[in-house]
Design a protein that fits this description.
The chain has 112 residues and is α+β, with helices and mostly antiparallel strands. The protein contains 2 helices and 5 strands.
Length: 112
């Protein structure tokens, strides 16, 4: 069971900011911006490269969730970034697909 599955099951505490039937969003404990949230599907998909056609609606709902949460955080107008890491070299630390929502400061490019 991954760290995120334990958060979804409420076995590990997290600062949950939003939740719907198919996803959960909480603050990143290693925040890289004033607003840094993780949006995690409840379905355990190890990484984006392992998502399938049957996950299309879920993937779309994660992006719409990011916009909804950005509005709630007050960063929808000033701007925000959505990051999906895939695999070890892509920076994925937890093998469970998730979106990083970052904002609240000027973000740099390239990101790293």
């Amino acid at each position: 069971m991954t760290l995120f599955e334990k958060i979804i099951a409420r076995q590990i505490p997290a600062e949950i900011v939003a939740e719907e039937e198919t996803w959960i969003a909480f603050r990143d404990i290693a925040a890289q911006a004033p607003s840094h949230l993780l949006i995690v599907p409840k379905k355990p998909i190890p990484c984006l490269a392992e998502a399938s056609a049957e996950d299309e609606q879920l993937l779309g709902s994660l992006l719409l969730a990011a916009v909804k949460i950005a509005r709630k955080e007050g960063i929808d107008i000033s701007g925000f970034r959505i990051v999906i890491n895939n695999g070890k070299e892509g920076g994925e630390a937890v093998p469970h697909l998730h979106l990083h929502l970052l904002g609240g400061r000027q973000l740099q490019w390239p990101p790293g």
